[in-house]
Amino acid sequence: MEHKLYISLGSNQGNRKALINEALRLIGLSVGQVERVSSMYETEPWGFESPHKFLNAAALVLTSLSPWECLTETQRIERKLGRRKKSSDGKYHDRPIDIDLLLYDDWEINTPELTIPHPLMEERDFVKIPLAEIRAEK
What we know:
This protein is 29% helix and 28% strand. It is of the alpha+beta class. The chain has one domain (3-135): 7,8-Dihydro-6-hydroxymethylpterin-pyrophosphokinase HPPK (Alpha-Beta Plaits), CATH 3.30.70.560.
């Protein structure tokens, strides 16, 4: 069965656009078909101080993987593209790539490893704006 997975991507280190595009290519190979991608938006860091602005986008991926398999694959892609540590205890930092699972069909998941819908997406314009762009009827 094919599921609709909405993801958020962000980068504020290195060639941000190339890293997001490479993440999308790898997602297409291991997670599912990348059906739609938003425009890229340049934004200020959220939750921490940094002189490096982010480039953010959202994508719709059609997948047959479970949400937990999607999480495993996107974390593997983050590591492949240079992400060395995840944010923890509300402490954020610069990163070459960040991939968040936002929505998976209409599922609600609340486990220590995964929360869907993403718990902070409504607070973040850098998530809401690109997500609204790709969720709009075409």
